[in-house]
Structure formats: structure tokens, C-alpha cells
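The instructor's notes for this session suggest beginning with a concrete chain rather than abstract definitions. Hand out the sequence below and ask the class to guess, before any prediction is shown, which regions might be ordered.
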Amino acid sequence: MVISKKPRLFIYAALVALLPLFGLANPNDSTTVSHQVAHADKTTHENTEGLTKEQLKVKETKEFIRHHLLDSHDFHLFSYGKDEAGHENHVSFPLPVILWDNGIHFFMSSKFEHGHAAAESKGNYYAINHHNGQIYKTDAAGTFIENDKGKIANDKPIDLSITKNVSMILITGLIMFLLFAGLGKSYKKNGSIAAGAGRFFEPIILYIRDEIAIPNIGVKYYRKYMSFLLTIFFFVWFLNMFGLTPLGVNVTGNIAITAALAIIAYIITTFTAKKDYWKHIFWMPGVPVPMKFILAPIELLGTFIKPFSLMIRLYANMLAGHVVLMSLIALMYSANHFIGSPLALLLSFVLTILEVLVALLQAYIFTMLAALYFGSAVEEHHHEEVH
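After discussion, reveal the predicted structure:
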């Protein structure tokens, strides 16, 4: 396996994989502060006065879709009624909030009261901004400060929280570990015969080996890349499927996640590439010397475009699918018509079936392209015809 044999590569890949889990501090620039705005629920919701009923429906639909696409610090299950303050009663599962702000701050997200209160920790107060879902340092009232450009100027601590997306990543990793550890044990116990759920996944594993890894990488080198190819296929596939559940997760629709996966593939390609790979980039044999100086920068740029295409393809396809599906679901409730509502329900059902296929297809495409890049990195070139 490529990573286990080279600890340095494993360290690089681990560091890159952790990138989506970190936020960056946003220091407060007091010189740009122009005015204060009210508490979280007053700042995040636009003024609805003067809006017609149809405009209000459109606004609520956009809020509904945006809330589904963003990461959050809890698993929201459903809402009902309203309390005395006029806020909806939410039923959700809180997640741990871990902040670094001159020390570690640890508390549960339930202290935010679904964005309606500031959470106190070691004398500091923190509140969630409803527009972007990020945590900022505030006063006891949860006041946000805007600069002259309309952006929040509050200090933003480093956020290491176990959010909904992070939770699903950890859950998916645990499922994969238990699933394939059990498959390995059944192989050992039953004489290389899969048992239980392994009977379903064994043909998929063999397909990845025989139809993706070997044809694109070659019999000589495919084994050291199989661990990554299998991991990335099932990781993307499982997360895509979780995104179609009522849990409301959108992990692969988060560009930070897809960027981390693409960068790991780029690091493996770069550090396992043979000298012929770099020779064909910087000094292509059989090409006139003047053309080499022109083509070398283009080829080098291509090495960065490849992981970028991996990132954008997965992110854009999954995000677009979620937006369209959630729009149809919202239309089903807002249409309020004996033809429009059933039609929206039918379209959302058909699109859900299509998204199940897209979830598998995107995992396949990501794995196939990664195998192509690995194959180009270890390809053995013969230049006798040039000489």
C-alpha cells in the first residue's frame, strides 16, 4: 500500500485531510467598525415588512435550501409550534463545540439555543451567525458588529468543533472500518469466501481492482494504490448516500471536503511519480527544443488542473443535485394546488432515484480519474523510436 510503506506520505495526507476541520481566526479591526446590529436572530433574518405572501414564500424557500446546504453544529430533526418569544420549537441532537480562543473552550451546541442565545465559556461569550453558520466572539447579548462593508467584524475563534459534516465523516469511517474488517475476517475464517454483507461488497471490490486499477495503472504497480482507490470509492459513495437521507447532511457538497480529497490524490501522484513522468512534463522527448519551452509550463499547469477538476466535478454535481431536489420538495409544499403539489412530489421522487445513481456514478468517476493520474505517474516509457 502506498501510504503504509511511506510514512512521510501518510503524514502529508493526514494533514491535508484535517484541513476542512479547521477554521481561521478573523481578527477584529476596530477602525472599520461602523455600527452595531442586534442579536443573532435579528441580524440574520432580513426585514419581512412590506413583503407580499408570495415573496415571503420565496424567501422562506431560499432559507430552507440554504439551511440544508450549510454545515451546522447539531442534527436538526424537526420543528413544531412556537414558544412565547415567537421562535419555533426545534427537536435536534446537539454536537460538541470545541473552540480555541486563548485556550480550549468546550461545550455542547445546545447552549446556543438554536442561534437565539450566546453561549458562555470561561467568561467569554460566543454566538452562531445564522447566515453562514460560523461562531463569533460576542458580548452576553450576542451582539454582532458590522464594518463599513457590511461584514461581521467580531473576532472569530479557531473552530475545531465536531459539526454535522465532521460527525458524518467519522461515522462513515467507522462503518467502513467495521465493514471491511469483518470482510477480512470472513475471508480468513471461511477460506477466502465472503460472508454476510461482504457478499454484496466483494464484487464491487473486485470490479475496482479488475476494471479500474489494473487497466489504468498496470499489473506491476496497481497493488500499492488499491488501498487508496478502495477507500476513496466507498468513502465518497457512502457520504453521497447519506446526503440523500432525512439527516440533511451535505458533506460532498462542501468544497473544503472535495478539495481535501483532491489534494490527497495530487500528493500521492506527485510523490510516487517516476522520473519519466517529470521528464515528459519538463523536457518531452521527440519534441523540438523551442516547443519544449512553450509546452513545459502548460504541462506543469496541467498537473494542478487535474486535482482541481476532481474537486469541482464532485462538489458541483452533488451541490446541484441537492439544490434541485430541495427546491422541488419546497415547491411541493408551497404550490398548494391539486395538480402542482402531486407533480412536484412525483418529480422529487424521480430525481431522488436519479440522485442514487449519481451518488454511485460520482464515486466511480472520482476513483477512475485518480487511477488514471496514478497510472500516468508510474507509466514506463520507451523512447527507442525517438533515437
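Then share the key points. The chain has eleven helices and ten strands. The first strand starts at residue 33 and ends at 36.
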